[in-house]
């Protein structure tokens, strides 16, 4: 994973300008960078999901699903949010879900 969204300003830009979509396994927010920069990805697991071990497992599943789908994509910033069902899913299931959602937000 080369590029990661880290700063508050970048998160806010994706939230304010980005398109969103989601299902039971993952939620996605994505925005085009528009300046030819390499794409970046962020992985989010909210504290309401559970303890640190639970949240880290969710993020590991999201990271592997993103890798399977070829993220990050040049010219696109993407934030992936885990859900309650992400933890018990395998990365292949999440990757299939992610593929559909990315087509929706990129259209």
Automatic annotation (TrEMBL):
InterPro entries: Ribosomal_Su5_D2-typ_SF, Ribsml_uS5_D2-typ_fold_subgr, RNase_P. It comes from the Bacteria. Keywords: Endonuclease, Hydrolase, Nuclease, RNA-binding, tRNA processing. The keyword Nuclease applies. Its EC number is 3.1.26.5. GO terms for molecular function: ribonuclease P activity. It is an enzyme of class 3 (hydrolase). This is Ribonuclease P protein component. It comes from Thermophilibacter gallinarum.
